[in-house]
Amino acid sequence: MKPTRSSGILLHPTSLPGKYGIGSLGLHALHFIDFLHLAGQKLWQVLPMGHTGYGDSPYQCFSIFAGNPILIDLESLKDDGLLDETDLEHKETFDDEKVDYGKVIIFKNKILLRAFAKFGNSHLLHDAYNLFVDENQAWLDDYAIFIAIKEHFGGNPWWEWPDAYRFRQPETVARFAKRHAYAIAFQKFVQYVFHGQWHRVKRYANEKGISIVGDLPLYVAHDSADVWSNHQVFQFDEKRKPTHVAGVPPDYFSSTGQLWGNPLYDWDYMQEHDFVWWTKRLQASIAQYDIVRIDHFRGFEAYWAVPHGDKTAQNGKWVEAPGEKLFEAIAARLGELPIIAEDLGVITEEVEALRDDFGFPGMKILQFAFGGNAENTYLPHNYSRNFVVYTGTHDNDTLKGWFDDLKPQEQLSVRDYIDSKTGNINQKLIRLAWSTVADMAIIPLQDLMELGSEARMNIPGTPSGNWQWRYQQQQLTHDKAAWLRHITKIYNR
After folding, report:
1. Whole-prediction pTM value?
2. Which of 175, 255, 408, 449 has an alpha carbon within 20 to 30 A of 25's alpha carbon?
3. Average pLDDT of every residue of the chain
4. Of the listed 142, 215, 295, 343, which one is catalytic?
5. CA-CA distance, 60 to 182, in Å (whole number)?
């Protein structure tokens, strides 16, 4: 990828304002794009858009291909004739500032079922629906059946289903599909609606000169249609139990490391099959976004393998991965790859070489810049062009929250670097990011709005209370847009 000098904002659609307790792919998404355009921005970065499961994390989804049903805009369904005003009448009260996922999921599922019932009696949209189903059959059938079976067994993970279902016994699955055809068709309808609404949003952004930056987790959730229907590409035993799982080793921040628990890939099998599974995955992401950030990129060079059943990540070991062969195979089929490599943490020369050999931009985080000495690689004077500079990511505190939590001497160190003893620290650091030689600069919307820790999106390692923050429409002020447009013009982004 050869990026032009540009800048943008990180905001997940769940954080958009609007009715029904969560952001959606409706008018407020278009209004946000209008704000980006007014502010002179060229990039909108989102988090993974998948169907989230337990914990509501966009990094743990039931499918790498399916969109999140709760992001569907209900007003658009009304415009399509699939809902009317009475369908949207409700007694629920929703929080405008935080997402209550449990309440939203129940409410939206009920309304989407109403829309599907009306869709079944209408022939206006069926040609487009049938085309969508045909074009996405490779993943859609398995996903829809997986969700239907999962609901049938009370939401339990697939490895707790009866053996005939757990092992995908063909006759059992076929019999279930016949008996539950309506439930399976409903899941396909929901995906048809989601993808249609998302592509409308993306098209509107592209028409405004704004590219969408998507996010692709390296690993997939154990409880997912991807694993259930493609067990052979993962490190499983004959009982379809993982032999090893993903994590990261002990470090300065954790004496026991981080145990993520995701299934690891059987890279030997993938290589024997010319990396077809990964090629399809990346091809789908490139179709959905303009640029794809790959999370935990270092896992393509070597990954930390922890024996399944261990309670911590301490007993893991590094295992080499065939990253170079993988990207060569994918590029041979798809051409130039519009990838950003999330290369944060302890990164080796081998990981940097893999990133640089394919020309993937890496990441720089300003919040990481002010510990250590002048050789800190996150300090702007050490940057080269092929990077994306962030004030922080979804895993960091907001810029204001981070700065307020620093010790006085640390705050002085930051101000000394930017040569500003007083003044608005958020604006100073955003301006610093925009002024760097890094080709791309991106800030979370919270940092532009100068919000504190109450607006933080995620605290890694905590099981609940994350991914909930939402903004209000009045917070997208013309003054903020004018200031951002001004510095964007100054620094030629």
Report:
1. 0.96
2. 449
3. 95
4. 295
5. 27
